[in-house]
From TrEMBL:
Keywords: Acyltransferase, Transferase. InterPro entries: Acyl_CoA_acyltransferase, Bact_Acetyltransf, GNAT_dom. It comes from Dokdonella koreensis DS-123. This is Sortase. PROSITE patterns: GNAT. PANTHER family: AMINOALKYLPHOSPHONATE N-ACETYLTRANSFERASE-RELATED-RELATED. Residues 35-189 form the N-acetyltransferase domain. It comes from the Bacteria. GO terms for molecular function: acyltransferase activity, transferring groups other than amino-acyl groups.
Length: 189
């Protein structure tokens, strides 16, 4: 590994009393690999930072809409310590829980009865059904919380996400204020 990459990679995992259990719902991808899908946990900070470091620059831009070399620890800590009343965040991990292969979340706006989604998948795990599995769970969670709509802004050049939301019945429209962004939404009845 060159010095540039090693400088932006988060530190290796250490045993932590806050480490999450390796439990969760078993999911097998189309290519036969297994992950565990479970709620995010405060002990996931280091694994989330490592997962972010594995994203390609394009994936980072598609997830956060700007360039970032690393996920700062304070942001990872915030992402792993969700307010369960407002946010539902899940991760897909290796069977032993050591590495995060996908992360997805909704933030619920109860006044509007709408949930905003966000999702990121490890580049070596794209195209095998993991994104759809996570999105299916977000849709179900939004519905269970009484949301009538789930939505997200997607960069127009993010073909994988545009295809995913289209397969899942989302409507799509370029935003009038920014043609590089597509608003995807689906009514939940």
């Amino acid at each position: 590994m060159n010095d540039y990459l090693s400088a932006i990679r988060p530190p290796a995992a250490r045993a932590s009393p806050l480490a999450p259990p390796a439990a969760g719902e078993r999911f097998v991808t189309r290519d036969g690999r297994e992950v565990r899908i479970r709620p995010i946990h405060p002990g996931d900070v280091a694994a989330l930072r490592r997962a972010f470091a594995r994203l390609t620059p394009d994936q980072v831009h598609q997830r956060v809409f700007h360039a970032m070399n690393e996920l700062p620890e304070r942001i990872a800590t915030w992402m792993c310590n969700v307010d369960p009343q407002q946010t539902h965040a899940i991760v897909a991990t290796d069977p032993d829980g050591s590495e995060i292969r996908g992360e997805a979340r909704i933030h619920c706006d109860y006044a509007a009865a709408a949930a905003e989604f966000a999702i990121a998948i490890d580049p070596s795990w794209t195209g095998v059904g993991l994104g759809q599995a996570l999105m299916d769970r977000l849709i179900a969670e939004a519905r269970s919380r009484g949301m009538t709509e789930i939505w997200g802004d997607v960069l127009a050049d993010n073909g994988a996400m545009i295809d995913l939301v289209a397969r899942l019945g989302f409507q799509r429209q370029r935003r009038a204020d920014d043609a590089t962004v597509v608003r995807a939404w689906r009514l939940l009845d």
